[in-house]
Amino acid sequence: MKQLLSPKQVARAIGVSESSLKRWCDQGLVPTERTAGGHRRICVGDVVQLIRQGDQTVLRPELLGLPPGTRTGAHNRQRSIETLVDALIAGDAELTRRLVFNNFLGGGTIAELADELFAPAMHRIGDCWKCGDLEVYQEHRACEMLARILHELRTILPQAKGLVALGGTPSGDHYRLATTLVELMLIEAGWRATSLGTSLPFSTLTKAIEKHRPTLFWLSVSHTGDNSHFSHQLNEWLVSVPKSTHVVLGGQALGHIDSIAGDNAQSFHNFASLRQFADRLSEQPAV
Amino acid sequence: MKQLLSPKQVARAIGVSESSLKRWCDQGLVPTERTAGGHRRICVGDVVQLIRQGDQTVLRPELLGLPPGTRTGAHNRQRSIETLVDALIAGDAELTRRLVFNNFLGGGTIAELADELFAPAMHRIGDCWKCGDLEVYQEHRACEMLARILHELRTILPQAKGLVALGGTPSGDHYRLATTLVELMLIEAGWRATSLGTSLPFSTLTKAIEKHRPTLFWLSVSHTGDNSHFSHQLNEWLVSVPKSTHVVLGGQALGHIDSIAGDNAQSFHNFASLRQFADRLSEQPAV
DNA sequence: CCTAAAAACGTCCAATTCGTTCATTTTTAT
DNA sequence: ATAAAAATGAACGAATTGGACGTTTTTAGG
Questions:
Q1: Could you say which of A33, A74, A249, B207 has the lowest number of CB atoms within 10 Å?
Q2: In chain B, what residues touch A151 (CB-CB under 8 Å)?
């Protein structure tokens, strides 16, 4: 439920006078709702947008339900990654949350955040895991924490009523983060995106597409059992997808796949390019 | 035929105080009927009209649309479950959220919510799935939606600094909801509970316990591959857990397990009894 | 049908917010 | 460097909000 705040609360949270905030509301810089009596009500998501777009400093993040210690400003991405990795491995949920929110409020799209922060961090954790430097539970816990924070971010993203997108991961692939990130990114880009979850057989993907007729369908492939078998199944499925649905593929495990069949399927190696593709689709809704 | 709501219900739905709403009714801003005794009754249509056309009186339409549970009557719960199942199957995230939040804010603990709402609903969905009445993606999507809402609930639970609890699901068990529910329930009960995630090998559980020395460790078992093999591994692990950690077991798949080794392990069949056990543990922190 | 608990009534009041004006500070242009 | 323009923050009376209270109506359950 979107939390509504009074101008005074918002003003105190971001450290400006109530007068200025009211003026911004009246100028349309901040989407404002009104009570029947004429009092302004502002929802947290819009405040967050204001903070991200402008260069407002958050003085009292706790008033917005954001983690304490949240500041905006220049961030060293490299340092952020390292700190984040440490926090994730240590299982420090609070620190993780603060780091993510700091980077989110500092501006930049979800796609950038995914490419420059989450992907490198999880990649690094994956490496440590393979080297045996990490316990399984540490890796799993890290994913859990990030997933939780992504869900939290989702609640403060403005929800548009754009085109429909669906997606998920194929059978045997239980990696949830990537598909959740795609969902978030598309929502930020104005889509009505829904992640169907993980480990979905191709047959049910077909059913979902038949039922919801999405403009975009993403398949996040982080892990495949038998590569050639998967490749075969994938291509068989791809050609069966109706032309009205654009299929996009992504994920580490795609490197092992030879070719991609179907003339409305494409694979992407980062979130930024996928975002670009999605934006182009949105601009020309006539398919 | 037309649904009538009390001022309190409408007030909560649109996010204003009951006083204000009553004033608006009396000013004629909201068409209001009266009972013989003088109580106001507002019909849903008028509220949505007030919101839609409302020159500027948009607040929070998202809570509208259901007769909020007046009391924990069995009748009402039954209806809640059915509505929830429908919403989950249809993939209606908004309605699902509304239902869950209404039931939570209407009073009752997480344990009650889990036993009386989530468990029956998911059980029903599981049944439909087995009967083939449901697509795989519908079941997965339902889990995704619920998981997201649980994470949201978590953010509004007060975080205490009580005893430490860890938990998760064993290898091969990817069912996330149950372990998340236990985590939530324990947090509500004042614990510092962390779910380590799903599909965790017993060896890493041991490592986690060694590292964090939790007072309580839960294992949520919804799915086991080979029952006898799992049973053997489980019992072997149980006896290896240090005495300072109480292990609790739960989940549908536990019915297939014969016996439970270890004198500090116990199994539970519902959330309420687990909650009781956790409360007793909290009261006598000296172990 | 009757009883007790829960919800809603009407009223009151302190706190908050409204719209406006105005002095002060910051930015921009000459 | 100076003046004009724009943005800020404080102050004001009027209006709105939301919580508290004791009383009355509705509802749930024996």
A1: A74
A2: 147-148, 151-152
